[in-house]
């Protein structure tokens, strides 16, 4: 099982922030996210599961401070159920210290994604 902690700071126009865990267990990708309004009040908690064959595209962008993983699914509404998703995409920000976990996740997903 691969687990990657992440944040999604751009929920509700930047007023809310999500923190969660992306988990890959076998062929199932699970996104668990807790949303807090203005960083203070826990507003929502959501868990979304889908098969990794439903992934349409996965992008990874590295930076000195942390990384971004962008998920796109087909059909689009699968990722649209996650707070912070927009236009069929979900951008997850991860810390640099979790880069090994991100790379392990991406290696596993590349076996399934054909572009």
What does this structure look like?
By secondary structure, this protein is mainly beta. It is 14% helix and 55% strand. It contains two helices and seven strands. It has helices spanning 77-80, 99-110; strands at residues 2-11, 16-25, 28-37, 41-51, 55-61, 66-73, 89-95. The strands form two sheets. It has a four-stranded antiparallel sheet with strand order 1-2-3-4. The protein has a three-stranded antiparallel sheet with strand order 5-6-7. A hairpin with a 4-residue loop joins β1 and β2. It is globular, with a radius of gyration of 13 Å.
Main features:
mainly beta; 4-stranded antiparallel beta sheet; 3-stranded antiparallel beta sheet; 2 helices; 14% helix; 55% strand; globular
Low-confidence stretches: none
Number of helices: 2
What amount of the residues lies in strands?
over 45%
Termini separation: 25 Å
SSE arrangement, N to C:
EEEEEEHEH
Task: Give the overall shape.
Answer: globular
Helix and strand topology:
Elements: E1 2-11, E2 16-25, E3 28-37, E4 41-51, E5 55-61, E6 66-73, H1 77-80, E7 89-95, H2 99-110
Antiparallel strand pairs: 1-2, 2-3, 3-4, 5-6, 6-7
